[in-house]
Design goal:
Elements (H helix, E strand, L loop, with lengths): L1 E5 L9 H13 L2 E5 L2 H10 L5 E4 L5 E4 L2 H25 L4 E5 L6 E5 L2 E5 L5 E5 L4 E6 L2 H8 L3 E5 L1 E3 L5 E3 L6
Helix pairs in contact: 2-3
Length: 175
């Protein structure tokens, strides 16, 4: 099985050769697409009046700080709008695609991060609450396998469930 990650910055502008490659590859092997979409989450959140906060890790990685409301917006945009835009585009090119999120069928389960170590404005490390961000701890491939067996190309948004069944923002590169 091959997993392809489509970055959120190119979701709306998938190049025809990329789509052709996805189609060709899905015809010869089991293929799964995972997508990002952070930029669109920020746009929609701003339209809804929810200012987005970002943090920087000690390693220099900038990421979204996800509180409960942001987790709901993240889920709405990733599992709804963006996932369906990608599925529609693939269907338009003759690819039998089915969009799901990591929530569907309990595909992605994650540990909620209790704390985040970030760099403050003064360049010093500090610890903050982990919010609704998670690290994937298990993947149940049952639904993905079912879709593949029926010749569908699964398109997965990286939203996971915590042990308490909260929506969690997880890194699409690791989903």
């Amino acid at each position: 099985m091959i997993v392809v990650k489509i970055g959120g910055s190119i979701v709306d502008e998938l190049h025809p050769t990329t789509i052709a490659d996805i189609k060709k590859t899905s015809e010869i092997t089991k293929l799964v697409v995972v997508h990002g979409g952070g930029k669109e989450v920020t746009i929609i959140a701003n339209k809804l009046g929810k200012t987005q906060g970002f943090v920087v890790s000690p390693g220099g990685v900038r990421s979204r700080y996800t509180d409960k409301e942001t987790a709901e917006i993240y889920t709405m945009v990733m599992a709804g709008k963006l996932n369906k835009v990608i599925v529609r585009l693939l269907l338009q090119h003759g690819i039998k695609a089915a969009g799901i999120s990591g929530i569907d069928g309990g595909v992605l389960k994650a540990d909620r991060k209790k704390k985040l170590v970030i760099m403050n404005e003064k360049g010093r490390k500090m610890v903050i609450d982990g919010g609704y961000t998670g690290k994937i701890n298990s993947v149940d491939p049952s639904l993905i396998t079912l879709l593949l067996e029926k010749q569908y190309l699964p398109v997965i948004s990286p939203v996971a469930l915590s042990e308490e069944y909260d929506f969690l923002n997880v890194d699409g590169d690791r989903a």
